[in-house]
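Researcher: I'd like a candidate sequence for this fold, 561 residues long. If you have to choose between options at a position, lean toward the conservative one.
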């Protein structure tokens, strides 16, 4: 016992007086991110490019190890450190062109103990040779982190979404993570999930495409994402904002509607809007839209969202979105925005049901448009169509819904709710548009779809082919129609213009609208069929906006017959 006490006392004295004598600190600092430079004067060969990596030497380092991710592989080089050096460099040669290379560095002490990895650095190797691959380069993929919550650290999942180029048959997915490179096989799917990924790191993803002969494309642009710790929620994407037209005499002032996707691993979301010199916020909700009211005219508003998991852990703020609210103060309500007070009588409606459309066109000089004539169905004014989530103050939307649902030009999908703030799908809009425009039969029988996702057994096979034949709505570059995708403003405008053969009308006569998506929107905005020009033609249109737009076309015939 006495010997043990004496040993402990001796250890304490030595540790206090000469701490390095007992516990030598051999740790090495984490190095800074290296610098990567492409030697663009080196070679014109497609596979002989060269980059140089340089890193500062941290305290305690005896060796530096450089890692470079290039040519779909991980390359490594070690360099011994001299006492007089402040930095060291290595060169990696025989690299392919047209790729973004990524690298990091690790330092080692004299016991060969490694530091933490440095931050990532990157450099783009441009194209110098005349060589071109036979397969189109894929677009930048999307990356999604599926947070596994409080599970063990290496069970996180990363899903990559990519679009197949037109001339390709397969994709291969790559993920740089955990200090290494993960690869999928060649698959004909546009999604792939990598599992067993660690927390607290930046991951880097890209894809390559292959044709049926095995020829490959250049790699896509890379996309990065930071995976947080076990208590973190993935950062949501920037929300989409639009100014919602509530009418000039709305008691709510101006209205800003925000839409956002709840990211993977999260359960709910909160919306924030900076307007009127104040930061407003919603409750935490599972709804993908939120409306802020009482917004002042003529200002630029800023919005963002945060996401929450089932434990109410909060994500970082999304990127900001911006919207210019127009100045409409003291402006009168235009004639086109005033709902008609007249109610169509059943007797008159039955007569109109028998009337067949003529070859004549309907001209509305006030709106400056000409449309083809079309058959109208009668309105059964006693039809019980009222949706719980549609305000009675929105008279135009209620009149539109009353007409379209009582005449079965549209079908009720949600029982007693309409969900006006949800985005409308391509197929739902197309079905209603074809019914209203009185287009029902294919001009050429026995046509077969060339879309991969629309076979002969598809319930809307003929409608989709009819829309494609007449240029009303076409598919995507991946040779799919995607009927359940959300509908963009540009696609909606093009569909309406082509279905009703809409033309601009002036005192000098009619003029065709050219085949540019934005010009279709301009034509509808000028005619007050689309009340406000969207900030981007690729933004999505809501169910309420789509129904109102179709009803304004119907009103042109109602008001001019």
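Model: Candidate sequence:
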């Amino acid at each position: 016992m006495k010997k043990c006490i004496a040993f402990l006392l001796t250890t304490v004295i030595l540790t206090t007086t000469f701490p390095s004598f007992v516990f030598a600190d051999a740790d090495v600092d984490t190095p800074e991110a290296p610098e990567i430079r492409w030697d663009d004067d080196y070679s014109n060969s497609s596979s002989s490019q060269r980059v140089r990596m340089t890193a500062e030497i941290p305290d305690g380092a005896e060796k530096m190890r450089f890692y470079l991710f290039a040519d779909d592989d991980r390359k490594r080089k070690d360099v011994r450190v001299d006492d007089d050096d402040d930095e060291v460099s290595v060169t990696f040669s025989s690299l392919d062109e047209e790729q973004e290379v990524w690298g990091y560095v690790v330092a080692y002490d004299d016991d060969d103990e490694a530091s933490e990895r440095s931050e990532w650095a990157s450099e783009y190797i441009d194209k110098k040779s005349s060589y071109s691959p036979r397969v189109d380069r894929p677009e930048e993929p999307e990356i999604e982190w599926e947070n596994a919550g409080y599970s063990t650290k290496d069970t996180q999942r990363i899903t990559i979404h990519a679009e197949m180029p037109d001339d390709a048959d397969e994709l291969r997915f790559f993920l740089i993570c955990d200090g290494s490179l993960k690869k999928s096989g060649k698959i004909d799917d546009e999604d792939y999930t990598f599992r067993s990924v660690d927390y607290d790191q930046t991951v880097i993803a890209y894809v390559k495409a292959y044709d049926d002969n095995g020829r490959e494309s250049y790699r896509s642009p890379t996309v990065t994402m930071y995976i947080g710790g076990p208590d973190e929620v993935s950062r949501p994407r920037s929300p989409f904002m639009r100014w919602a037209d509530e009418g000039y005499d709305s008691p709510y002032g101006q209205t800003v509607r925000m839409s956002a996707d709840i990211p993977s691993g999260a359960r709910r979301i909160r919306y924030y809007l900076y307007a009127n010199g104040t930061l407003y916020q919603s409750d935490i909700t599972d709804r993908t839209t939120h409306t802020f009211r009482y917004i002042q005219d003529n200002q630029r508003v800023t919005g963002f969202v945060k996401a929450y998991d089932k434990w109410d852990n909060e994500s970082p703020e999304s990127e900001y979105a911006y919207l210019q609210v127009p100045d409409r103060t003291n402006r009168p309500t235009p004639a086109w925005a005033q709902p008609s007070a007249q109610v169509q009588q059943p007797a008159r409606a039955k007569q109109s049901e028998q009337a067949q459309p003529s070859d004549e066109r309907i001209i509305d000089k006030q709106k400056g448009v000409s449309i083809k004539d079309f058959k109208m169905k009668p309105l059964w004014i006693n039809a019980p169509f009222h949706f719980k989530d549609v305000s009675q103050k929105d008279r135009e939307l209620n009149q539109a819904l009353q007409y379209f649902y009582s005449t079965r030009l549209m079908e009720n999908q949600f029982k007693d709710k309409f969900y006006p703030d949800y985005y409308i799908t391509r197929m739902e809009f197309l079905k209603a548009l074809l019914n209203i425009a009185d287009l029902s039969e294919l001009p050429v029988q026995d046509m077969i779809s060339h879309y991969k996702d629309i076979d002969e057994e598809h319930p809307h096979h003929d409608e989709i082919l009819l829309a494609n034949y007449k240029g009303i709505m076409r598919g995507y570059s991946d040779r799919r129609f995607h009927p359940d995708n959300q509908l963009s403003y540009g696609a909606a405008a093009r569909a309406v213009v082509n279905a009703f053969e809409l033309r601009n009308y002036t005192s000098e006569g009619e003029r065709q609208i050219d085949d540019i998506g934005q010009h279709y929107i301009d034509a509808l905005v000028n005619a007050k069929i689309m009340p406000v020009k969207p900030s981007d033609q690729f933004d999505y249109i809501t169910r309420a906006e789509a129904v109102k737009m179709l009803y304004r076309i119907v009103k042109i015939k109602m008001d001019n017959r």
